[in-house]
Write a structure and sequence with these properties.
The structure is a homodimer of 185-residue chains.
Chain A: H1 19-28, E1 36-37, H2 38-42, H3 55-65, E2 72-73, H4 75-95, E3 102-103, H5 105-114, H6 121-131, E4 139-140, H7 141-161, E5 168-172, H8 173-183
Chain lengths: 185, 185
């Protein structure tokens, strides 16, 4: 098989909220609604490149942790999201050998290989080009998260339709479009 | 067939640059490099909802008109992009019957039907939910462009693989992933 792909972190279950997170959440939740939006989240997440996380990354993550699908998260979900970002940060730092805050082609390749994917060098180049909005030939932590989550989602959708694990699926137009739009961020 | 889908506008050929565009481009091109980035483009495009076009929309459009794939566009490409946005704006306004600057479910459904698609009401709901970052149950012009371009791209990719026009394709994992990541924005 050419695909495998590891996932980690959980969006389920009860999570203990730390005092640090309580303080942080209160600062972000300006209208005291008990929930924060992607825009409020954005102001909380630095990408290590002198910028906040992208709109895309914030929207993606709110969507992952927002159980009620309202486009907002409560404090429990915020703690889960925080843990999730930290776990990704650990992976990212493990491959960012020069500690530059961004990872290059060879580092991305190593990261995806460790996750169980086998991609050609051309495909890795394509992934960088696709993610790298600022043309730096490298990707930041938020771009890395978006990319990995996208690959995981498409892999999962493919796998569900590949019962025989043959590496090829048969798919109808509406299903194709749903998967494509649903998994993309 | 369940899919058809119209496209319009051209990203090819020589385009006459108007004096208005020349002036506008000069304002945006702050470093006088003769090319503008997605970030510079963003400051030029209002979405009629008191906001600029999203990062996603700007990145998508730069990608469509940037012939050299440098992530920037020159003045000719800017004029082409401007014409393209205006054409979409014409479509959008045609369906925004209450002139609210955003279109709702029924209006989106009518727009996509006119483009040759036949989608179920559930699918239209899903499209709004997918695009509507601010939970207004409606989509703005930039979200509309992103959505239509995405649908068009996935439809085109599907069609290329559906030689018999049977409405079902057989697709391998790497090809699937390339299509999914390449067409998504």
């Amino acid at each position: 098989m050419a695909y495998s792909g590891a996932t980690f972190g959980s969006t389920q279950g009860h999570i203990q909220v730390s005092p640090e997170i309580q303080k942080w959440f209160a600062t972000l939740d300006r209208d005291h609604s008990g929930r924060i939006t992607a825009t409020e989240l954005k102001s909380a997440l630095a990408n290590g490149q002198g910028s906040t996380f992208s709109d895309t990354a914030c929207k993606l993550m709110i969507g992952m942790f927002d159980k009620e699908k309202k486009g907002t998260i409560d404090i429990q979900e915020f703690q889960a999201l925080f843990n999730y970002v930290n776990a990704w940060l650990g992976v990212f730092r493990g491959f960012d050998h020069d500690n530059s805050g961004s990872i290059q082609e060879s580092e991305l390749s190593a990261a995806l290989t460790q996750m169980g994917y086998r991609f050609s060098p051309e495909f890795i180049k394509f992934l960088i080009q696709k993610s790298d909005f600022n043309q730096h030939q490298s990707i930041s932590i938020d771009q890395f998260i978006v990319l990995c989550v996208q690959i995981q989602r498409f892999t999962e959708a493919f796998r569900q339709r590949d019962a025989q694990q043959s590496g090829t699926i048969s798919i109808a137009f509406e299903d194709f479009l749903s998967v494509a739009l649903n998994c993309s961020v």
